[in-house]
Amino acid sequence: MTTSKKTVRKSPLRAAITGVCGYVPPDLLTNAKLAQMVDTTDEWIVERTGIRERHILAGKGLGTSHMGAEAVRGLLAKTETAPGEVDLLICATTTPDFVFPSSANLICDMCGIRNIGSFDVQAACSGFLYALTIGSQFIETGKYRKIVVVGADKMSSIIDYTDRATCVLFGDGAGAVLLEPSRRYGIIDTLISSDGAGMPHLHQKAGGSRMPPTAETVAKRLHYVHQEGASVYKFAIARMADVVTALMKRNRLLSEDVDWLVPHQANKRIIESTAERMKLPAERVMITIDKYGNTTNATIPLCLWDYERKLKAGDRVVFAAFGGGFTWAGVYLTWAYSTKRA
After folding, report:
1. Which domain holds residue 177?
2. What is the Cα–Cα distance from 79 to 19, expressed in whole angstroms?
3. Residue at 237 is within a domain
């Protein structure tokens, strides 16, 4: 007589976001203040971008890592995670404090996180989703159990406040999430992509190895963001829509299956176009661009921070981003927790 044994099939191990915290510096740069600096108006900025104000990190010697550390300290406190429990920290940033060491190293030091791996990811505005994708691999293999992913940028450090085409767009800020293993919730699918042919349309001309800093490059104002708005707008609309469409198709999602779209906050019209392609109503789209502007790698975690109380365990969430390079990325996950509403 033989006894058959049933094989219990475990659900796959996934990286779940189990906490989020954001930080924006206290100094505000409103549209009214910008109108005193360059030839623009509040009405013009709001109509074309949806931005009303942005936060600026003021103060001598303060960099991206200072904002990142504020977000990480808040994250550790609210998730009751000791610094010694963190296995890995990844910082997505386009404005690191230094060429080296990485801003991730500095954040760890400020937060008392010792003797772990930490590094920066640079993929422009898509960097946070690239970093989430990288972090999820370490969770899925069982290598690590607690990973902090930070998105932070001090965009004011590379913005020309005499150029009205770019200075109205960007702000400073940081956000951080905690990734932990789960067999019920977490990251289901990711998509990252790039096309280096887009470089001429959005880049910083000087400051790297191709054109190191000199008195001449500074005098010619080559250390600021160079953006060809019309070209970037066209590519961003196409690629943001493409990435969410691909994720939905691969995971057999209909528009009614998606509870939230979390788009990179570059321009309200790009966000609305992406939601329209997904056939999602406005109430299921996270928008914070009006009060933060484009904080580059911080936009998506700041959205999660702002909307955290509206999220509930099991919500199906799609992230989408587009950045200079060009880069673009998407993530599909199920949210891991509900937050008590006040």
Report:
1. 14-186
2. 6
3. yes
